[in-house]
Amino acid sequence: xxxxxxxxxxxxxxxxxxxxxxxxxxxxxxxxxxxxxxxxxxxxxxxxxxxxxxxxxxxxxxxxxxxxxxxxxxxxxxxxxxxxxxxxxxxxxxxxxxxxxxxxxxxxxxxxxxxxxxxxxxxxxxxxxxxxxxxxxxxxxxxxxxxxxxxxxxxxxxxxxxxxxxxxxxxxxxxxxxxxxxxxxxxxxxxxxxxxxxxxxxxxxxxxxxxxxxxxxxxxxxxxxxxxxxxxxxxxxxxxxxxxxxxx
Length: 248
Ligand SMILES: C[S@@+](CC[C@H](N)C(=O)[O-])C[C@H]1O[C@@H](n2cnc3c(N)ncnc32)[C@H](O)[C@@H]1O
Fold this sequence. Notes:
It is built from nine helices and eight strands. The protein starts with a helix and ends with a strand. Helix 2 crosses helix 3 (48-55) and helix 8 runs antiparallel to helix 9 (213-232). It is α/β, with parallel strands linked by helices. The model has no long low-confidence stretch (mean pLDDT 97). Bound molecules: S-adenosylmethionine. The site of S-adenosylmethionine (SAM) has 20 residues, from helix 3. The site of S-adenosylmethionine has 20 residues, from helix 3.
């Protein structure tokens, strides 16, 4: 197995976030949703946030991801929590989803809209929402106007489309939504279920691959991203953006 997938298999999450952050974003949308909303969770990964959506609504959820092992992990999680009856997993790509227009009351995407690009995702997914439906996404966002050189250089390479809060808010309005609220994920949301388990995994794998320079290079790159956050978590974070589809 590619060492990258060894790092990223069987983690509790595949991106920053915690149950309380999911719940906080959901509370912004709930007043605008029906009693039992139809929900689409895009790029669901192993499904930690999917479980919160199921537990804190009476809705049914389609959880879509292109990586089958994550969907299997999600199914195990849902079965253990007794919520599997309301969750349907779909293996597929977010760029070409097999759903009719106006199918969903709520679209959710934690750490996933970047795959097709934040702005493109806002536009492409809007038709899948019923009029008045809601969307919640997390997006990597600059927290300062003039980032320090080190994070700026790193993210210019790793995610050149990263923008500041105001630009992301403007795109929400331009794509046909009104913002219901936003908040920044705190540093703990990066560490607890994501960077800490990854750091532990990297330490194990560095021993196993001590004689493999290619694998060690991959491990060093993952460490570099984590060390950057340790030093510069005041410069960037994921921001949760919650919005409602409005008609022109
Ligand atoms: C950063 S992870 C976030 C996973 C999960 N939402 C979480 O917060 O733990 C991004 C997810 O998007 C999925 N993904 C990547 N490209 C995709 C695509 N084209 N279509 C659907 N899912 C995709 C990955 O498999 C991964 O599960």
